[in-house]
Structures are given as structure tokens and as C-alpha cells.
Amino acid sequence: MKKSTPFSHIKFSCCTLLCCLVAFPTSNANEVKNKLQASIDRDAEESIEIAQTIWDLAELGYQEFESSKLLQQKAKEAGFTVETAVADIPTAFVASYGSGQPIIGILGEFDALPGLSQKVSQHREAHIKGGAGHACGHNLFAAGSWAAAKAIKEQIANGTLSGTIRFYGTPAEEGGAGKVYMARSGVFDDVDVMLHWHPAGFNDASPRSTNANKGAKFRFHGIPAHAALSPEKGRSALDAVEAMNFMANLMREHVPESSRIHYVITQGGEAPNVVPEFAEVFYYIRHPDFKTVQELFDRLVLTAQAAAMGTETKMDFEVINGSYNILPNTTLSQITYNNLVEVGGVTYNADEQKFAEELYTTLYKPDAKLGSQEQIRPFVPSAGRASSDVGDVSWQVPTAGLTTACLIPGSYLHTWQAVAAGGSSIAHKGMLNASKVLAMTAAELMQNPDLIAAAREEWEADRGEDFKYVPLLGDRDPPLDYRK
């Protein structure tokens, strides 16, 4: 059988999609979409309040107890059945409404990033000194996805739509791989289609892959000694870390060009006059193909073993995270894209324009201009360099996502500017647009089972007949304390 690639079925999928769209141009479909948008607009104040509460909480991965509790409470109040602590993760949950097929899932994230606390300001001002911040917009991700799920629930309740809608509360995307543990536990196994979105500085719903990723902490154990009086008695764990880093940097010359290797020394000793007894370095390996990531990781382990041998120290390592590259689905992406075009971009009022202009001046080499938040990017398949635990979900369920302009154009995630914008009305407008697109796409799929069948046919061909899901992080338990 000819090996397929993530984009090898674009022609087939688009043709199939076109036929399906021609077959179902009902006025009822448009009426349902109008009702969904109206419902999301009606509940906009509540959705914004949820987003702002989670923005204020700024809880780190696997510690999002209040954020998760809030979302679960809202789901229960809306009549959803909520399964808690799924996959042995206290803050993970599944909220379901309806019965039977199709089962449409919508992902929601809610973890923040350490050290990026920021006020809604055009200047660098920590909201809480040394605190965390939603620099990846997961406060919006959670609230926006929930709003879409709730809107679909209303249409199931009144008999307009049939099937099951699920809202997945997924913790610790930022390096904790929450969705991978959920995927491994089987919570996505019966889902027909999974939808997700992410805040950005632009509007796009093109099929997009990502890098696969595997991360681990390498720990070295040496012998302490007085660094001046008796250095010969010591064996430096920090020397081992530095030796490993040196060899890993040499390895960069002999890896595929699309690879990424990066690290931070998390512990390097306590005092210069004490030979370090313990040192730790945290590595990430990335590549567009998950199999190559594993191969590179195995080579990285060899550098750690060699460093320990050469410095007469002992080494152990702990795999912290590992995620597949996202498997894009052109059939689903085209449906999502059409709905994004229908909803449109983000328009600023005078105050928002002033805020955006001032914040824009703080950006380093912005790659987009103000005003582009009103536009929808062309439908062009692409490959991103970041990683996401959505990747593992996409290899278990046909999956599609989108981005909306919640940040100002030209800005980047994981920055203080992203936190500032993410707590502003600019972000709320982008979030509500995402809610509408997700709800409209879910409804379209519920009304047209042939679209789901076409998406699954493409997905099965791209995975290949022999695919077997084996998590990159192995059988370890969720690292619930990785942010402590």
C-alpha cells in the first residue's frame, strides 16, 4: 500500500466535501446556525466572566482546581452529565449532553504559564509579582469552547439537533501532556469528530500539522566536596550536565533540519565553593514526525549516559511529556473554514484600537499589521513548529481546529503582551467568534453524517492500515507535581 501523508488526500476530500455541501443546502441548516450565533451572543456576558475568572486565577498545569471546578459547575447547571477526575487527573473532566451518534467533542484548556503575570496594560506590569499568567490564552480556550458546547446542547434539548455533545476539560497542555494521558485512558475512543481552537493574532482554519515533542528531565548525582580544599574528592553533577549539553549541541549537526532541541538547566548546585552533588537539565526534542522524535530522544539518552560515565556520576531521567504531531483533516478543516468566513474577523472600537496601537509598539519585529485581525487568512495547508497534546487526540479521532484574533496582530504567544491582550475586550471578541465557528461546525456535522464519513475515510487513509497508538511518554503516571 502506498504510504499516505497528512495532505495526500486533499483533492479527494475537497471533492467529497463539495458533493456533500451540494447535497445539503437546506434552509434549516442556516436557521440552526443563526440560532447558535444568537445563543452565543445572548450568553456572551457569562462567557466573558468565565474567561476573566480563569484569567485572574492563572493556575498552572495540574493545579487548575478552581478553573476546573468553575467549568464543571457551569456544565452541571446547564444539564450536562459530568465525569470527574478522568485518566487519574484531578482537574480533568468530561461533560456530556444528549444521546446516540454522532458524538462531537470540543476540547477546552485552562492552564497558565509560570512567571508571566501581567496586567491588562500596554506596559510590562506584573499582576502578581512572580505569578503565572495566561500567555497562551487558555482562559479563552476554556470559556469559548464551553460556550459552543452549551449552544449545541440547547439545540439538542429542543429537538433541532440529535446526537451527543461533549466538552472535554483538558489540563496541563503546557508541558504536562494532559490530553495524552486522557487519550491513553480511552476517553476519546468513541468520539466521531473532535473540534478545538486556539487564540492567536489572526483568523485561520486551514489544515495545519505541528511538531511532535518529547521532554524529559535528566538528573545527575555526584559527590560533594570543598571546591578549594579538596576538589579531587568531589565528582560534579554540574560537570555532567555541561558535558551532556556539549554533546547534545554537537548532535545538532547530525539531525534532520526540521528538528528542534532545547533545554534549560533547572538545578546546577547551591554554592560555587561546593562541588555540586545534584544537577538537573530539562530537554525537549521536536520534529514533524513522532517516530523521528523517539529516535532523536534515544540518541539524547546516549549523551546523558556518556556524560555520567565521563564525570563518574550517576544519571537517571524522567520523561515528563510526549505528544504526537497533529494529523490534519482537510475535510473537517474546509467545513470549519467556511464557517469562519461566515462569522468573519474582529473589528476594534476606538478604545480597543488605541490599546492595540500602544501595545503594538512594544512588539519585537511584528510580522503582521494592525487591521489584519478583520481578515480571514486563505485556506492553505501548512506545518507549524510548535507542539500540542492535541496531536495525540488527532491520531485517535478525526480532528480540526481554528484560530481567531484574540491577540493583536503581530504578537506572539508565551509573552506578556499575550497576557495583556488575553484579559481585554479584544480577546473576548475573538473568543466569541471561535465559539460561533465551533458550534456551527458541530451542528453541520450533526446534520450531515456523510461529512463525518468523508472525514473518517481521509483520516483512516492518512493514519495507515498498520497504525497502532503508542504514547511517546510510555506508561508513566501523569506528572501532577511537574509545576510545583
TrEMBL record:
Signal peptide coordinates: 1-29
UniProt-listed PANTHER family: PEPTIDASE M20 (PTHR30575), XAA-ARG DIPEPTIDASE (PTHR30575:SF0)
The protein, known as: Amidohydrolase
Record keywords, A-Z: Hydrolase, Signal
Lineage, opening ranks: Bacteria, Pseudomonadati, Verrucomicrobiota, Opitutia, Puniceicoccales
Domain Peptidase M20 dimerisation as annotated: residue spans: 214-303
